[in-house]
Structures are given as C-alpha cells and as structure tokens.
Automatic annotation (TrEMBL):
Organism domain of life: Bacteria
Protein name: MerR family transcriptional regulator
Keywords: DNA-binding
Domain HTH merR-type intervals: 1-71
Pfam families with a match to the protein in the record: GyrI-like, MerR_1
InterPro entries assigned to the protein according to its UniProt record, in alphabetical order: AraC_E-bd, DNA-bd_dom_put_sf, GyrI-like, MerR-type_HTH_dom, MerR_fam, Reg_factor_effector_dom_sf
Keyword DNA-binding in record: yes
Amino acid sequence: MLNIGEFSKICAVTTRTLRHYDDIGLITPNMINKENGYRLYDISQIRDMIFIKRLKEYNFSLEEIKEIISTNDNEFMLNKIINKKLQIQNIIKQFNDIEKQITEDITNLKKGVDIMSFIDKIEVKLVETQDMNILNLRQRMNVEEYGYYIGKLFEIVYSNHFKVEGCPMSIYHDSEFNPEDNDTEIALPIKENNKFTRILKGNTCAMTTFVGPYSKLNGAYGKLTEWIEKNKYEFIDAPYEKYIKGPMDGGDIITEIYFPIKKK
C-alpha cells in the first residue's frame, strides 16, 4: 500500500488533486486508516491514475473521464476517443488557418496594406430567389452540431428515397449570434412535399459567395450589412447560408450567404 504522498510522487499528481478526485468519485483510496485518517492506495491503482492522466491529455473533462471509467466498455471508450481525435483535428486546423492569416497580415502590414482591405474585395449581388421546398430540422443548437443535423436530414432522404435538389443550408432565426445556443434551422432542398418539409419563400436577396473557412464568414456578413445600409435596403426575413462546397469535398470551402431584403 502507498500513502497519498507516495502515490502522488509516483503518479506525478498533487495530493490536492488526488483529494479532489476522491471527492468526486473519480479515483478513491483503496482504504483509509481509521486511526490517523491517512488515505492509502493500492499498487494496482497506479495504472488507473496514469490512465486518467492520459485521458486528461486528450482534453477529456473529468465528467467525461468518470463516464468512460464507470462504463468500462471498450467500444464506448473507442468511440469517445475517436470523436475526441476529430475535435482535436478541427482545433489544429483552426490554429493552422489562424497562423496562415497572421502570416498574410504581417506581409501586408510590412507593405503598408490595410489588413481589412479584403472586405472591399467581397462582391455583393442583388438576386431574386424562388420558392424552395425544404426538408428541415429546427431547434436550438451549437454551431458544432450543424454537421450532425445535416447528416440526420440525409438519413431521412435515403430512408424515404427523396430527391435532393440543392445544397445543405442553415437558416438563422435568432436576433443575435450565440455559437453555443442558436435558434437554427438546418435544411435540404428536396423535390417531395411532405410532413417533413416546408416552403422557403422566394425573395429579393443581397447575396455573396465566400471562398474560405467558416471562421472567416463574419467578413462576408459585415460586407453584406454595409451594402444593405448603403443601398437603402432593410432586412425582412432570416438570413441563410448555402454550403456549396464543404471541407470534406477537398479544396476551398465555398459558402453562399443570403439576406432577404426590401427597399426602405
């Protein structure tokens, strides 16, 4: 048996952390000395502690780690780790995109170029859209969940043999943006009109096509808003995005953004 200090030293974990893990039931001492209250750990618990540390390195929360340990199911753990790897890959890609953008900004600043001048290059068009029959799922969701719900729509399409007639879309119904909790309608244009669908009414729209990562879409939104104000239009309905080419298609990501508008 090892006392808490010895266990702490071997596992490279502070005694304060071990007491906290005990309090939340993550890893508890094998026994507690009734005379002095010392926490005693079994040698076999060293592996448990190293496993917990590894999951922490994978950026799992303590709650997730506790769930993995308590479930004690290899397939469950495998799926959790695979999903975590995908999350980390997305984070790495985001930082690679940021590094690329910083490098471009540094180059432009050295040349005396305004690093926000890219907004002026975004082209806005006035278009007339037609009524569209859309298969839709609307609820409050995190922006990271869009792909999941688009997948759900395709499951409905395949199971019912519907005919897809356009790209996946996101329609934003909230008056403000919260990436963690948005009233969002994920949609897919299809030929069939049924209980799963509704008509997205056609409108006059200010539209732009943006080439680049989703994290940079705010520049396109800014340019659209400036254009609408400058040309004396006003918003009349929820804006929406069409995903012409996604990250899984290879090459540049292409997104069309639509703002339904009318003259003031």
